[in-house]
Every structure is written in structure tokens, then in C-alpha cells.
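Dear colleagues,

I hope this message finds you well. In preparation for our joint manuscript, I am sending the DUF1682-domain-containing protein (Hesseltinella vesiculosa) sequence together with its predicted structure, so that both groups work from identical material. I would be grateful if you could confirm receipt.
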Amino acid sequence: MIMTVMFCAYIMIYKMGAGANQKVATQWANVYNDYLAGQFALVGNREGSRTTIFKDGPSDYFLYTSGRMHVQFAHWCLKLKPRCDPVTYLTSFLFSLIGWADPVKDRANISVTLDSNIKNRFVFAILDKSIAKDKYKKRFDLSKLTKLATVDLPTNLEVYTESQKLAEMVVAGQVSDILRRSSGLEMALVTYLPDFEPENLKLDGDLTVQVVYDVENPESASLFELPLALADAVAKLHMPVDVQNKLKKNIDGVAKAYAKRDAEDRAEQLAKKKAEAKRAEADRVKNLSSSEQRKFDEKERQREKKKELKKRTKRA
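The corresponding C-alpha cells are as follows:
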């Protein structure tokens, strides 16, 4: 009886939570429908003049857009609270208290992949100060290439960049205006490298813009425009020679470190193969008959004599 009641209660909570998340996602898509329609040729699943947001799970929703200058495509994702799963909600909340998970919030996570013909390739981030140090340490792209910069922005934000001058160029115009009139930003990132340390370094990855913010914040609405503002700022950058040289020096340093590690790995593998071959040869010799061992020893002596003769010839 108790199990039946608990099961029914869980089903009811699930349906109510899923319905609440669907309502949040639908309202979010409706608010920005006209903006996206004015920016992109293709916007998700159009039904008349409205856009239907795709459901990717009880707490995950997304829109796909394409057909815009400077942009290949973009994903506009909502990562909502697990309202339909009280167990996940509770564990996520508890883990967030000890730093094992992000605080439980309704978040927008927007990813824009820029045109491949954009030559400006660099790593740059604007982070909320409360999570900045942790993000910086955990992300490969930020920790390897960027440093904290001083930029005139709201005090709750920190900028990590490969060049101070580059930061000042990116955080200007519309980007600066949006950041000053909004609140709730957690991360705005420009990168072409992975967030985790890869086994092999590849420098031809897509240049992307990623923006994460708290949609529950009443002053976060204008942050929806930040991804495309950053995309346009990056595409239109005219970098001075000194900034270009700085960026090249930064990535060359990372590439050299990988080349050194790869050379050390190859040397280690070669040494292992030689050691294995030597052990196999020793095992083979042990199993030879007495006459075969004498022949083998004689061949080894002759080989050593030839090596010694070559050494003497070179010294002469």
C-alpha cells in the first residue's frame, strides 16, 4: 500500500514538474521568437509565425538556428531545474553546497559556431567572479592560454584573455552595453580549443561563442543577445600586429609542450620495445642446446669486435 502511494506521488510530481518545465521553455522561446526570426533564416521548428522549442528530456530544451552572417549555426539550449525528479533535485542541491555541482538554477546555455573563414582565433572569457577561479583552473583552454585582465565592467565580472589589448577590443560597443544593463551572466566564452586536456592537440577546431546565464534573474533578458554580439565583435576584429604576435606566441608555447611530450612518449615506447626484444632474445638463448649456445656466443663476440673496430676507425 505504502509503495503504491509513493509510486503514485512520484508520477504526480513528475507530471507536474515536466509540465512546469515545458511552460518555462515555451514562454522563453515565445519571448525571443521575433528576435531569432530577424537574425536567422532558419529557426527551429516553425509553426506559422511562432517557433516550437524542441524537448530533449524532462529538463532540457533547445532551438537550432542557421543562416546568418558570421555564423554557421547556433544551439539555444535551456537546462532547467529537475522539477520532475525530486531525488535528482535534492542530490544536485546538496552537491552544490560542497562544490561538487553547479547551483540548481534554470540556465540558458547558448553555443554559436562561427564561420570557418574567420581568421581571428583566440581564447577569451567573461566569468562571474564567484565561479571564475574554479572555471579557470578546470578548463584547459583558459588555464593554458589566458590571464586575468583589467577591463571596465561590472564588479561581479572578471575577464580572462590572451592579451589586455584584445580584451579591450572585444569588450566594447554592443557587448559592453549588454553587460552593463544586465545581470545573471555566469560565463561568456570565445574559444577554439576543448575545455579538457586532449590527448592530441588539434588547432583546427571550430571557433565558438558560448554564453551561460541564469534565466530566473529578472535582469537577464538582454543576455540573450550577447552570443551574437560577441560573434559579430570577433568577426569584425582588426588585430594589431603586436596582438597577432602575442596570440601566435601563446599557442606555439602550448604546441611545443605537446611536441616535447609526444617525443618523450615515442622514446619511451621505443625503449620498451627494445627491452621486450632483448628479453625475448634472452629467453630464446636459454632454450638453445650447448652447441647452439656456443655458436651464438661466437657470433656475439664477432659482432662486438666489429663494433669496436668501427669506433676505432671513427676516432682515427
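For the figure legend, we might mention the following. Residues 267-315 form one domain. The radius of gyration is 29 Å.

With kind regards,
E.M.
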